[in-house]
């Protein structure tokens, strides 16, 4: 339905995106992941016709949109990372303004506004000034604006950044419902791996302008099929134990948190006795050592060497 074909975008001497190929099928939710500076926003700008690629093509229903983006723009909804609302207007005034940009008017526009306010849970706040809204309410209205013209495709660029858990869950459930009930096609970027796990059918992972992995969630996890993720828990850590783990040649990656250390090792390596010995030598008492199946976060760290929020 929508695809980038060998798309490259350069800014002076910097290649933000390098020969990127990605596609989105009708009715699926696709996740686009990458650390900051990976090229995600540039890819989204090209897909949404806001920015032309330096080379390559952008296609909608197998037709290039570079010379004529109008057919794509009619069916596309865009939820930007930064909230794009007029804060001195009410919720309904914002929806009326953006509705007119879509050439909607009269009873049709009013009916659609009522539907959208109900969908995003803001019917009781329709006449409230937006600058008095919480962060979560602004995010929901931002989504409402993008849905006003019944788009077939919606691009959501980190739509839950900086909001409370209740609003975040509301947004995730709304996206899921739109996809299931209306077959709406969604491209979703997020800094929260659990959101991608919950929503997405397929995933693309970018780093430094390159596409480094793509596939279903299970296919992505298979990248680490030859490795085990081990969770080590204790009430505290000391420098001696952490140094022992970091110096072990069999450990591929290490993530240290307050009461949990996560390591990735080859499947054939039995680390239990070695970890117990390290803890004993460091004078540390471990609470548990557990082997877990690889997660998307594990794969992401493996591929990029960075956490998603980096």
From TrEMBL:
Describe the location of the ABC transporter domain by residue ranges.
2-233
SMART domains linked to this entry: AAA
Pfam families linked to this entry: ABC_tran, DrrA1-3_C
Q: Which SUPFAM superfamilies match?
A: P-loop containing nucleoside triphosphate hydrolases
Keywords of the record, alphabetical order, are: ATP-binding, Nucleotide-binding, Transport
Extract the GO molecular function terms from the UniProt entry.
ATP binding; ATP hydrolysis activity
For this protein, the record's PANTHER family field holds: LINEARMYCIN RESISTANCE ATP-BINDING PROTEIN LNRL
What name goes with this protein?
A: ABC transporter ATP-binding protein
């Amino acid at each position: 339905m929508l695809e980038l074909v060998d798309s490259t975008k350069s800014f002076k001497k910097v290649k933000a995106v390098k020969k990127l190929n990605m596609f989105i099928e009708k009715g699926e939710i696709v996740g686009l992941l990458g650390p900051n500076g990976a090229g995600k926003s540039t890819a989204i700008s090209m897909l949404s016709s806001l920015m032309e690629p330096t080379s390559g093509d952008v296609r909608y229903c197998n037709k290039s949109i570079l010379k004529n983006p109008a057919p794509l723009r009619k069916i596309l909804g865009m939820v930007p990372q930064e909230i794009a609302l007029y804060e001195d207007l009410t919720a309904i005034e914002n929806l009326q303004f953006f509705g007119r940009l879509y050439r909607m008017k009269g009873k049709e526009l009013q009916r659609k506004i009522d539907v959208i306010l109900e969908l995003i849970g803001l019917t009781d706040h329709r006449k409230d000034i937006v600058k008095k809204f919480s962060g979560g309410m602004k995010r929901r209205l931002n989504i409402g604006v993008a849905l006003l013209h019944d788009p077939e495709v919606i691009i959501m660029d980190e739509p839950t950044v900086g909001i409370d858990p209740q609003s975040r869950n509301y947004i995730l459930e709304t996206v899921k419902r739109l996809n299931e009930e209306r077959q709406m096609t969604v491209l979703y970027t997020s800094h929260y791996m659990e959101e991608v796990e919950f929503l997405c059918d397929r995933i693309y992972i970018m780093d430094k302008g390159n596409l480094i992995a793509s596939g279903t969630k299970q296919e992505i996890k298979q990248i680490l099929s030859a490795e085990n993720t081990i969770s080590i828990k204790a009430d505290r850590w000391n420098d001696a134990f952490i140094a022992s783990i970091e110096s072990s040649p069999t450990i591929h990656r290490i993530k240290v948190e307050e009461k949990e250390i996560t390591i990735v090792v080859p499947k054939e390596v039995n680390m239990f006795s070695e970890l117990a010995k390290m803890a004993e030598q460091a004078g540390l008492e471990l609470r548990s050592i557990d082997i877990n199946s690889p997660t998307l976060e594990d794969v992401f760290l493996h591929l990029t060497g960075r956490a998603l929020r980096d």
